[in-house]
Design goal:
alpha/beta, 7-stranded mixed beta sheet, two-stranded antiparallel ribbon, 11 strands, globular
Length: 222
């Protein structure tokens, strides 16, 4: 009987451990009509590929709409159906905010800014690509921190949010638990740097090689 009891106890422990290991940390990527495609697809590709690996399988990528409508269309015409919206109850480990050519409506969206503020308190990492930094600025996430935005938009960011220590002519800026980037193709670089923070440089390089991103180093050589 003692042997059977120990066996049952071991099985229960194993099941409990498996359930615990299956619990996911969520990487939330915000979307809204007019978002710039690569700001979103780059991190989805990088983190999506990483979640297939055992060392990152506790993470999942979720797409979050900034409106009650889950279907949004990018500036370039890509239609995306989000998993959730900002009106759902969501606990994120990482929030990534993209950009649009016209950010005015989103900066003035109190519900969206409130969502970003809330995630900024609880999430381990907050990130933005391109002019997504203006949303982080509006939410106060970047106050007292070094940050960047789209190349050429640094003066506008500094003027709009004087509490930000705006960095010029830098692809990616990391300060504490916040990552900002120029966006566009640089969104890949930012995603890999964030992946390295969430795992390791070795694992980030593994994903870079698996999606052949590392070959871009040769692409622009004569």
């Amino acid at each position: 009987m003692k042997t059977l009891t120990k066996f049952v106890f071991f099985v229960v422990l194993s099941i409990t451990a498996n359930i615990a290991s299956a619990a996911s940390s969520k990487i939330g990527i915000l979307v809204f009509d007019g978002f710039l495609t690569s700001d979103v697809t780059a991190p989805i590709e990088v983190f999506g590929a990483a979640t297939k690996k055992s060392w990152f399988s506790s993470y999942e990528v979720v797409v979050i709409s900034a409106t009650e409508d889950k279907t949004v269309i990018s500036e370039e015409g890509l239609k995306v159906v989000a998993d959730q919206t900002i009106y759902d109850t969501i606990e994120l480990d990482v929030l990534l905010v993209p950009s649009a050519y016209d950010m005015g409506d989103y900066i003035d969206n109190d519900n969206l800014i409130s969502f970003i503020e809330k995630q900024g308190v609880s999430a381990s990492w907050i990130a933005s690509n391109c002019s997504g930094a203006f949303l982080l600025g509006e939410a106060g996430i970047l106050d007292g921190k070094k940050a960047t935005t789209w190349a050429g938009g640094e003066k506008d960011l500094a003027m709009s949010y004087p509490k930000i220590n705006v960095q010029y002519d830098q692809n990616v800026v990391i300060d504490s638990n916040v990552i900002t980037s120029n966006g566009g193709p640089v969104s890949y670089q930012a995603a890999f740097e964030l992946l390295a923070k969430l795992s390791s440089e070795k694992f980030a390089n593994e994903i870079s090689e698996s999606i052949q991103f590392n070959r871009l180093d040769r692409a622009f050589r004569p």
